[in-house]
Specification:
Blueprint: E1 15-19, H1 25-37, E2 53-57, H2 68-71, E3 73-77, E4 84-88, H3 89-95, H4 97-107, H5 113-118, E5 122-124, E6 138-139
Parallel strand pairs: 1-2, 1-6, 2-5
Antiparallel strand pairs: 3-4
Helix pairs in contact: 1-4, 3-4
Length: 145
């Protein structure tokens, strides 16, 4: 028996596509975070970016449970006095639908340099079109819970 050490050179990456229409934000974000980190693979190693690319379409049609659509606030701070901007989830989904899901996935990743590298593999689009047809994305794996 040999122990294999996973490193950046021997990682195989796949492209997956997800239709986010009528899916709950939190449940979808957990599945995405698992695949982005590579925890669904038997070669998972916490110090190596071994995850796959994810393309999310129809992000404008995400669902939030309860009254979160009107009560959940998303904040942006410019760094200047009086520069705090707040929007509800409904307003943010109408203008920037990708930011709701990106924020949820970012919150589920570890806070380090590796997570900043991992989040770049997430591509989110509000509509049904995306420019990643050349990568031939496959449907999202059902075994990732």
């Amino acid at each position: 028996m040999k122990t294999t050490i996973t490193n950046e050179a021997n990682v195989t990456r796949h492209w997956y596509i997800i239709d986010a229409k009528d899916q709950t934000v939190g449940r979808l974000a957990t599945r995405i975070a698992v695949v982005l980190r590579g925890k669904h693979k038997p070669t998972f190693s916490p110090h190596v970016d071994g995850g796959d690319y994810i393309v999310v379409i129809n992000a404008a049609h995400l669902r939030l449970t309860g009254k979160k659509m009107d009560t959940k606030q998303y904040h942006q701070y410019s760094g200047y006095p009086g520069g705090l901007r707040s929007q509800t989830a409904r307003e943010l989904l109408a203008t920037y639908p990708d930011r709701v899901l990106t924020s949820a996935v970012k919150g589920m990743l570890p806070k380090n340099r590796l997570s900043r590298q991992v989040i770049k593999k997430l591509k989110i689009y509000g509509g049904a079109e995306h420019p990643h047809d050349g990568q031939q994305p496959q449907p999202f794996p059902s075994y990732v819970k």
